[in-house]
Amino acid sequence: MNRCKGKIALVTGAGRGIGAGIAKEFAEQGAFVFVSDLDESTAKSTAAEIISSGGAALGFGLDVTSGDDWARVTDLVAKEKGRLDILVNNAGIETIATIADITYEQWRRTQDINVDGVFRGIKSCLDLLKVSGADTPSGASIINLSSIAGLVGVTDQVAYNTSKGAVRIMTKAMAIEFAAHGYNIRVNSIHPGVIGTAMMDEVYETWQKNNTVGTQNMDEVKEIVVNMHPLKRIGSPKDIAMGAVYLGSDESGFVTGAELVIDGGWVAQ
């Protein structure tokens, strides 16, 4: 408990799934959490859950592809708190399509949200993060959600693979740049495996429809996916959230440019 006591965090895509799990865990660990999502109602719902559990949060809408939206949000954070200790770039989409079938519009939308959204988040919040970096020995922390798809190839996901690979190397580039300029802002990436979320349910349905894993029986699809993990289970948002707590806390003060893989052993095979 209290591993993030007194810290100010902003989590994107926090209306559901992994983002909601991270926001709730930060609050549980003592942080004030700005909860954002493209769907404002879900962001406010997550914030309300945090508050009802005794935490502190504020929920609002944010389109991570919009410079105007980011300007509005950073103005809000500056007015409310004057600094930002933790930025979690979690918002993203998963596009499943072969290179033969994917449209350019699908490709660009995936990169716009998953890559440009991270870029905009870092650039927009940089001044607020610098304030924290100057005031705390462990520095401010940026946590970018990549994926195991940013480390290894996945069938029929060229757009998603590409976007998450870009997030991985952007993380390292920013970590080195910020250290070189003395900003005291650490930048790390988290690479989840298969996590039990509504987004993953949509992926299961697409794999079933397209016969991606060799069967169109949903129970068999899920069993095959489970067996792809050496630990023989899929993960939960809590698994990812605890990794984010470590990277956002002072415990990881000497960690930057790192990849935290939380995948049940998938990419170790």
- Note the overall shape: globular
H and E string: EHEHEHEHEHEHHHE
How many runs of DSSP E, i.e. beta strands?
Answer: 7
**Which percent band covers the strand fraction?**
5-15%
Helix fraction, binned, reads 40-55%
Report how far the terminal alpha carbons are from each other.
Answer: 34 Å
The secondary structure category is alpha/beta
Please tell me the overall pLDDT: 96
Described by strand count, sense and barrel closure, the largest sheet is:
7 strands, parallel
Biggest sheet strand order reads 3-2-1-4-5-6-7
Family: Belongs to the short-chain dehydrogenases/reductases (SDR) family.
GO molecular function: glucose 1-dehydrogenase [NAD(P)+] activity
Organism: Kordiimonas pumila
EC number: 1.1.1.47
